[in-house]
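Why does residue order matter? Because the sequence determines the fold. Keep that principle in mind as you read this record.
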Amino acid sequence: MFQRKWAKHWREEGIKAGLFLCATVSVLTTFAIVWILIREAGVFFQEVSVSEFLFGTQWTPLLEPRSFGVLPLVCGTFLIVAGTALIALPAGLATAIYLSEYASSRVRSILKPILEVLAGIPTVVYGYFALSFVTPLLRTVFSDVQIFNAASASIVVGIMVLSMVASLCDDTLRAVPASLRQGAYAVGATPVEVTLGVVIPSSLSGIMAAFVLALSRAIGETMAVTLAAGATPKMTMDPFVGIQTMTAYIVQVSLGDTPAGGIAYQTIFAVSALLFVITLIMNIVSSHLLRKFREVYE
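Structure:
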């Protein structure tokens, strides 16, 4: 009996140690990534001022004369994010409302896995889908659409993150206590009035958190926008022309044509650091909104 208890004790301690090791590796990996970004970006900013980098409107680090204004990349990134938001957020929320409030158990069991399949499709497939289907379709409607354009990239990224929006919003809507719905029905509200007047306002912070997480996912998307949007950094609001995002530029420089150690190569760390800061801020905002949502029903 004593040996059995002793063996069980050491087995449990081994499991705890293994779990702690996994957590430690995750934390150390995160710190290592942050440290590398800070160190390499610091080398870049020794030669290029922060103000020139953040507020410059010309981005030609690989050509002479060189310019290091990152605003064209930021503009291209947020043009994709804006297009993605127009597609994914309303469609995802509407899908979540249907699944949570109106769909039968059978319909839900069919639609939910189909939505989750969208998240499992490789992003490079979305990129080729944009080139081979979405862009030709757009060119049949709008004659001035370029082969590489922001609109087709926004559409496929919107489809990609739609499943995330729908899944997160569905979980948020279903977390609203049934007593709130029953109280609204008791005073004569219709199902639509319950949904729009009770359920959505009660879960608004969770819905907003889902939106922020989905948009941060769109900001970090790489292969789909690299293939569909092109590699022409420019400050434009025209969705039918080619642009370049921050992630697409990182892919371009990382292909190996740019020699390591030079100022052009260091730009990928400066752009990566800016991208990291933007996504970190969005994740912090999302976490804050989720905390507010949890506090409502604790």
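The chain has two domains: 2-46, 59-296.
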